[in-house]
Amino acid sequence: MPDRVLSGMQPSGRLHLGNFLGALDNWQRLQETHECFFFVADWHALSTNYADTSQVKTFTYEVLIDWLAAGIDPERSTVFVQSHVPEHAILYLLFSMMTPIPWLERNPTYKEKQEYLTDRDLSTYGFLGYPVLQAADILLYKPDAVPVGKDQLPHLELTREIARRFNSLYQPVFPEPKELLTSFPKVLGTDGKKMSKSYGNTINLSDQEPVVRQKLKTMVTDPARVKRTDPGNPDICPVFDFHRIFSPLPIIDQVNQECRTAEIGCVQCKAFAAGAIVARLAPLWETRAALEAHPKRIEDVIHHGCQKASRVAHDTLEEAKKAMKI
Q: Would the pTM count as exceeding 0.70?
């Protein structure tokens, strides 16, 4: 059997290029070499959005469409929705009984999110304890590895600590998953900051060609290049980052050289970048249109994926309960 990997994503609306390059592109490749479990973490969305749950179902649907359009294949991967597999909540409950509070308070994102999400009250048990739910999400499927970036390593280490504590208190049930380090490219938004829905600077996977081209036209460039005749510096230009990711090598070389000598202007440079992004996204738009025309296909994916996930989750939970003698 190939190694098993598991990863999830919160539903917060339609996905953007940052999600695609940071996760989906890697997931799509992992399907070739691993047994993959991918889930929409809709319960996790409640940890910060508990006061307004009106969009969770819609966003879950949108995320799944973007996944399938990006090449996540339900015939090769188990694709499911967290809340449709109640074993997640039960194992979360069991883990919460034995997880020390200081482990949760030292979570690096606990205070960070409280500082920048000032428009809501995050002094809740659910927000403090979401890493325990995350541990249950992972350990329920006993993956060999979890695809993560370096910034997520503390979360995975907490999962391993919970596994070790359970195995020590009762009997060995949960293997400690390894990190599968992934190199996420730095994806900047149209304002030059990190691409994020909260900044309103995204290029969405579902944006059609006119929208993509218009967003590129407004994208910031080298701030020192005020006039068309001013030479530019691609090394500090957010648009050139898109060229590095999407453009063919001849275009990259051309822009890199001609920007520095002012032979090419920002308008033409952005048009080249937009064309490269459009070429990459066009197959996704075609698949997305077909999925939106047949919504039952999404329902079938959810149904069959949750059935497959439930079988694995049920067996693991029964093993954990037996170890605990309950």
A: yes
- Residues 54 and 57: their CA atoms lie apart, in Å, by 7
159 and 30 in a common domain: yes
Whether residue 153 is found in the same domain as residue 36: yes
Condensed to tens digits (0 to 9), the pLDDT of residues 153-211 reads 889 999 999 999 999 999 999 999 999 987 777 789 999 999 998 889 999 999 999 99
Residue 289 falls in which region: left (phi positive, over 0), alpha (psi -120 to 50) or beta: alpha
Query: Could you tell me if 239 and 177 lie in one domain?
Result: no
| CA dist., res. 316 & res. 159, Å (int) | 16
Maximum alpha-carbon separation in the chain: 76
**43/206 Cα distance (integer angstroms):** 24
Residue-number span of the structural domain to which 229 is assigned: 207-287
pLDDT single digits (tens) 36-56: 999 999 999 999 899 999 999
As given in the structure block, the two tokens for residue 135 are 């541990």
d(CA 322, CA 247): 55
The two beta strands, 77-81 and 4-9, are unpaired
Residue 112 is predicted with a pLDDT of 74
Q: What domain count does the chain have? A: 2
CATH number, residue 47: 3.40.50.620
Instruction: Look at residue 194 and tell me if it is in a domain.
Output: no
Distance CA 324, CA 326 (A): 5
Say if 110 falls within a structural domain: yes
